[in-house]
Amino acid sequence: MTTMISESITYLQNSDEVVKTVLIGGLLSISSVLLVPAFVVSGYLVRVLQRTMNGNDEAPVFEDWERLLVDGLKAFAIAAVYGLVPAIVGFVLVGGGIMAAFSGDAGSLIGGTSIFVGLLLSMVLGLAAWYVIPAATANFAETGRLSDGFDIGTLRPVLLSRTYATGWLLALGVIVLGGLVAGVLNVVPLLGTIVGVFVSFYAAVAAYYIIGHTWADLRTVETHHEGTVDERPAA
Fold first, then answer.
1. What percentage of the chain exceeds 70 in pLDDT?
2. Inter-residue contact 56 to 75 (CB < 8 Å)
3. N or C: which end of the chain has fewer CB within 10 A?
4. How would DSSP label each residue in 42-76?
5. Helix/strand/coil percent split, the chain, to 5
6. Rounded to two decimals, what is the model's pTM?
7. Neighbours of 47 (CB within 10 A)
């Protein structure tokens, strides 16, 4: 585990254009409020998955921008669909609870319960969505087909495997670490916030490096009943 985290943190340094890549990624992240830059960053993370799951540990550079944008849009669509479930549940239960709370004494009790259950259920479902999205994105990245991001038959055994759970936790740890560093940098007005965005981009790339390698490990051990390795077409 320690080796994987260490390799993920030094991953971008394997590129001859590490400074340029981090600079572009950070600037795009800062501009993500415009949406299109955010899609491009998502497309870059998809490219990280595609390389690492195929055994290429040379970090990609920002090029072929049209494909980055298209892949990023697809990755965003996958995340949005899975994230929609907890959002809808929370909206219905919390919204209904708020309305009930203003309908009288009995409604206040029911409304309060509905709000509590809605918030709790949304948090649980949100965590589940966070768990599914990297695997769904990796499945899409491997084939290039958006529909494979929703291939439950393929995703189910992956999500239930210890290998994926471990990889996901490691990736989450890197994201949290990046968030903590960014939070500390935020103490410095403006400049710290800007640098923090660059750190967050770096952490996201490191996390997707882990997911890509985890996906490769899963595909290596997956076999047909006759004992041959199940090889799926690369994107």
1. 86
2. no
3. N
4. HHHHHHHHHHHHTT--SPP-S--HHHHHHHHHHHH
5. 80, 0, 20
6. 0.84
7. 24
Q: How far apart are the first and last CA of the chain?
A: 28
Looking at residues 78-94, what average pLDDT do you find?
85
Distance of CA 52 to the CA centre of its chain: 15
C-alpha 54, offset from chain centre: 19
Using the Cα atoms of residue 182, residue 185, residue 186 and residue 190 in order, give the sign of their dihedral.
Answer: negative
With tokens 């072929």, the residue in question is 64
- pLDDT tens for each residue of 152-175: 999 999 999 999 999 999 999 999
Q: Give the tokens for residue 188.
A: 């410095």
3-state secondary structure 164-178: HHHHHHHHHHHHHHH
The most confident of the ranges 7-11, 47-51, 54-58, 225-229 is: 47-51
